[in-house]
Design brief:
Two copies of one chain form a homodimer. Chain A has about 250 residues and is α+β, with helices and mostly antiparallel strands. In chain A, about 30% of the residues lie in helices and about 30% in strands. The interface of A and B includes residues 59, 210 and 212 of A. Chain B binds a DNA duplex (19 and 19 nucleotides) through helix 3.
Chain lengths: ~250, ~250
DNA sequence: AAGTGGTCTAGACCACCAT
DNA sequence: TGGTGGTCTAGACCACTTA
């Protein structure tokens, strides 16, 4: 039976199943929010027991690629649901409840990747990119200024109209229109001082302390999708990081 | 068989097993680094199958309470190993490899918990506490100033001599001497400006931007153990947060 | 009622480690 | 060699969802 999968090495069967499912997911075999075949059908297709399929899917769930619903099925993870929305947005009020930000696009331009950007996006220097500047508001107050860099290759027909006309979050747009599913992020944080231009946009005085967040958003196989530099006014808000919280259900 | 466990509700058996193991771990039934009974013995003791014990331990592993080693056994997680050491230290050089910090204790005092501290430590205002100030250096350079608050109740006989005389990390001391195992942390980050005193200690100019990290360290059942406020000079270093990385093995 | 994922079991065999 | 965790299987039954 194990011959049916052939992963070269003597890797565990469930790893081979996981690998095959990941490849199908990355290839967009099923749309976000769509159901995968049932565990029984997958077991039959791969010629393994249901237990082995379950173990493979367990890991896909842990890595947030899919979501299970008892009685309904297993679904491709989507940036649709409220819980997923929150997952990559780490700015919370110093006091009070979490809010969804309102995003205003200040600039949408085309350009070329500088060497540092190219390295982080794992493309060649000079690669065509989009540069997008957004202002984020929480309860009407300007809280963060985001500068995004995307490769034009990954988002072929993107225009300012499409970007600002999205009905949902930015990552939801990536997912639904370009089949690019942001699965995790890597962030580096620093403290910096507001320059005159940024100060004006965020409504703080020049030289005010700002939190700088440099994010790389990654999709399947840790392929970089987006660079995002955020400058956050932390007078009324904070960045939060709960380590180990996800596992503690 | 299931009667043997009795968890009141109709919770899954493996959750009951997990709960019992967690209680034994929290009670210090086995010392950090010590082996738990084998899965077969636990299955026999609880009157369940090995598969059920494995599922319970799977979750304990995900929550970092225990570590499995094939062929050797399952062990109480310890702050001994290098990997564990790194897990709660998020400051990395802007360029270059991760380093362990050198800690110098600048102050060790006794005091009373203020209302905000008491709330976060979940004790009464005025509760006796320790206040400890540490200076952290990386490659000889002062990088962060840490102010810790611990309850005297949780660390009964702690003295400056014991604290500074520890052979290992601070969390290793909590674990080995007080049986308190830090399992996860919750952190809130802001940008702030260096005051004159802090500036002097960190070797920056007054008004320099600093990263402020407010941490609560938690043990079993999310009981608070330690408050820690860090002020970090991010000229040469950064705070990093890799979301979802733990799951992606 | 039919289909899905969730739990639990029992047993076989493998990979690794200590002795 | 014996003990440990790791993998894989097959099947029974439960809980939940949808129609």
């Amino acid at each position: 039976m194990n011959q049916a999968l052939e992963l070269g090495a003597v890797a565990p069967l469930y790893k081979a199943v996981k690998q095959l499912l990941t490849q199908e997911l990355a290839a967009g075999e099923w749309r976000p929010g769509e159901a995968l075949p049932s565990e029984a059908k997958l077991a039959e297709r791969f010629g393994v027991s249901i237990g082995t399929v379950r173990k493979a899917i367990d890991e896909l769930v842990a890595e947030r690629m899919v979501v299970r619903h008892q009685g309904r099925g297993t679904f491709v993870a989507s940036h649709n649901t409220s819980r997923q929305l929150f997952h990559f947005f780490h700015i919370v009020p110093h006091a009070g409840d979490r809010q969804h930000p309102r995003t205003e696009t200040l600039a949408f331009r085309r350009g070329r990747a500088e060497s540092g950007e190219a390295a982080r996006l794992r493309v060649a220097t000079g690669e065509p990119v989009f540069r997008i500047r957004n202002l984020l508001r929480l309860e009407g107050r300007a809280v963060a200024l985001d500068d995004l860099v995307l490769t034009q290759a990954q988002f072929p027909d993107l225009t300012e109209k499409i970007f600002t006309g999205r009905a949902n979050t930015i990552y939801h747009l990536y997912q639904t229109r370009y089949g690019i599913n942001v699965l995790r992020t890597s962030e580096r944080l620093r403290a910096t001082l507001a320059g005159a231009d940024v100060a004006k946009l965020l409504g703080v005085r020049k030289g005010a302390p700002l939190l700088e967040i440099n994010r790389v958003a990654l999709t399947y196989h840790d392929v970089p999708v987006e660079l995002r530099r955020s400058l956050v006014n932390t007078e009324q808000h904070e960045y939060f990081s709960d380590l180990g919280k996800d596992e503690a259900r």
